[in-house]
Amino acid sequence: MNRCRRFLLPAVLLFAALLPAAIAASAAAPQAQTTGHAECLSMPSRILARRVAYCVLLPPSYDSDKNRKYPVLYFLHGLGDDEQTLAGSGAMNIVDDLRDQHRLGEFLIVTPDGGRSFYVNSRDGKTRYEDFLLQEFLPFIEKRYRVQAGRSTRGIAGVSMGGYGAFHTALQHPELFGSVGAHSAMLVAGTPGSAMSGAQAMMLGQILGGAFGNPLDVAFWDRNNPFTLVRESNNAAKLKIYFDCGAQDDFGFNVGAQKFHDLLVSRKIPHEFHIYPGGHNAEYVAQHLGALLQFHSRAFGLGPAE
Predict the structure, then answer these.
(1) Could you give the CA distance from residue 301 to residue 289 in angstroms, rounded to a whole number?
(2) Is 306 among the domain residues?
(3) 45, 112 in Cβ contact below 8 A?
(4) The Cα angle at residue 160 between residues 241 and 11, in degrees rounded to 5
(5) What span, in angstroms and rounded, lies between the C-alpha atoms of 14 and 204?
(6) So what's the pLDDT on residue 7?
(7) Per-residue pLDDT tens for 158-187?
(8) Is 140:42 a contact under the CB 8 Å cutoff?
(9) Do the domain assignments include residue 39?
(10) What's the CATH code of the domain at 87?
(11) N or C: lower Cβ tally within 10 Å for the chain?
(12) Distance CA 182, CA 161 (A)
């Protein structure tokens, strides 16, 4: 393992790379009486010129009620993780337990493999992930699975890098999504790394480079920044919004989250926001995943239960 990789791997905690193990450890609850199941496959992409893996968490009644259509939540993983972030962990136990407790309605949860894309079209034009997501992936999923087509029953959420991607995508396309949520989203009010130590800033620059230019293209970053998207349009007011972050976030994203909250408050945009004890790690996400899913369940009109 080279020196750069040794340096970067610990930082992958920034993007909840250990989420599967932590969720599994946190979900040591009795087996739910009624359970859903996961399906993990891949689809061809003309835009990305490769196959893209994805997983779908299907609700308990999906196979038995063939005439029913369901809301859908697109869940975007963090850097260092992949489409297995929920399906390959104990997250299904959390979901099933909430449903057994009548605290969560039935909807599909879909996680595509986002690689290191930040879910945007890259600055160099080589990875058009946002185009893939909207032009190919959503239509593919909503044709293959029994999904209710409509923004009010379509949500998007994510963790860290995926949280950034969820906000970016929803704020750009409120005609497609009715709700957006995030844990520990990479929300940075200014230029990334400007308030960090030299080593942290260098590491973050390496991580961001593939999507935002290396060296970082500040103008490109600003155009795509959720802060800019809120300031320059009224799109946020069209969305139901939830986000939380740990007070001890390792990269200070709690500061960005607070500033994002303040921006929404200043524009009188309703939202749900929490700062909880915890860092930027898998344990934090495992503790609060249920709250994010319940938020989307309510946004879909399912309430605490069906």
Answers:
(1) 19
(2) no
(3) no
(4) 165
(5) 10
(6) 27
(7) 999 999 999 999 999 999 999 999 999 999
(8) no
(9) yes
(10) 3.40.50.1820
(11) N
(12) 10
Residue pair 251/192 in contact by the 8 Å Cβ criterion: no
In a domain? residue 87: yes
Confidence of residue 16 (pLDDT cuts 50, 70, 90): very low
Cβ-based neighbour number of residue 108 at 10 Å: 23
Region of 178 (left: φ > 0; alpha: ψ -120 to 50; beta: rest) is alpha
Please choose, from the candidates 93, 230, 253, the residue with its C-alpha nearest in 3D space to the C-alpha of residue 182: 253
Q: Cα(150)–Cα(125) distance, rounded to whole angstroms?
A: 30
Alpha-carbon separation of residue 94 from 65, 218, 226 (angstroms): 23, 40, 30
Q: What is the pLDDT of residues 75-112, one digit of tens each?
A: 999 999 999 999 987 788 889 999 999 999 999 999 99
For residue 55 the two structure tokens come to 């997983």
End-to-end alpha carbon distance in the chain: 50
pLDDT, tens digit, 9 for 90 and up, residues 107-164:
999 999 999 999 999 999 999 999 999 999 999 999 999 999 899 999 999 999 999 9
Rounded distance between C-alpha atoms, residue 25 and residue 23, angstroms = 5
**CA angle, residues 50, 59, 52, in degrees to nearest 5:** 5
Give the percent of the chain with pLDDT over 70.
Answer: 83
What is the rounded distance in angstroms from the CA atom of residue 104 to the CA atom of residue 100? Answer: 8
> For residue 201, is it within any domain?
yes
Domain of residue 269 covers 3-299
For residue 173, give both structure tokens.
Answer: 């396309």
Tokens encoding 273: 């926001």
Cis bond before residue 20 (omega within 30° of 0): no
Q: Which two tokens stand for residue 245?
A: 């972050």
Which residue, 167, 169, 175, is CA-closest to 129? 169
Q: What are phi and psi of 132, to 5 degrees?
A: -60, -50
